[in-house]
Amino acid sequence: MRKVDPEKHEARRNQILEAAVACFARKGFHRTSTAEICTEAGMSPGNLFHYFPNKQSIIAAIVEEERRQTADFFAGTNQASDLFAELLDFMDIVLELASDAVYLKLALEIAAEALRDEEIGKLVAESDNELQLALNALLRNAAARGQVDPMLDPADSARWIAALVDGVFSRAAVDPGFRPIEQRPMLRLLVTRFLRPGATSAAA
Predict the structure, then answer these.
(1) In whole angstroms, what is the distance from residue 79 CA to residue 126 CA?
(2) What does the pLDDT look like over 170-200, one tens digit per residue?
(3) What angle do CA 110, 162, 73 make, to 5 degrees?
(4) CB atoms inside a 10 Å sphere around CB 92
């Protein structure tokens, strides 16, 4: 039996995911065929199915990769001295992603598929729960350091921040005049006034 090269295997897997993302953003999840993904990735159907048995497994892998990246971001805040600044950095990332036309379309496709497919819906719900838990922990620690208002319930605050993240993508999808990255000063001002007692201006 031929030994599998882990690096080559991972590279091919990522190649398929990148191709799928491009196809899903162009035509949507259900209108994209596996043959089109194969063409985009430059490989045969047999090769693709060696990594992913169907389209559902591809979109599941995309959700899992986003979960990993989000978890890595919040894990990196553990040693930060200013947790509120880390939260603002996270919101900046949200604005950058919502400003990316390909990512925006993909996010909307995944949200729609989560309503149609029970397994995808479960993965998306788990990812959302992990985000809220991470935000909750960050806000709780920030309150203990006096960096956010300790009178605010961290779980409720985390839920509203998650809702704000969802809203950025929804607004970008329906409002052509809404350019997320240009809203950075306003978003920072809103978050600052919400979380920091007596705040009157956005963080730099």
Answers:
(1) 25
(2) 999 999 999 999 999 999 999 999 998 765 5
(3) 85
(4) 14
Residues 6+ apart with CB under 8 A from 87: 135, 138, 139, 142, 161, 191, 195
Q: What number of CA atoms fall less than 13 Å from residue 40's CA on the CB side? A: 20
What is the average pLDDT across 59-79?
94
Sort residue 175 into left (φ over 0), alpha (ψ -120 to 50) or beta.
beta
DSSP string, 150-198: TTS-HHHHHHHHHHHHHHHHHHHHH-TT--GGGGHHHHHHHHHHHHSTT
SS3 (DSSP) at 105: helix
One-letter amino acid for residue 125 of the chain: A
d(CA 109, CA 112): 5
User: How many other CB atoms are found less than 10 A from the CB of residue 169?
Assistant: 17
Instruction: Tokens 């400003």: give the residue.
Output: 99
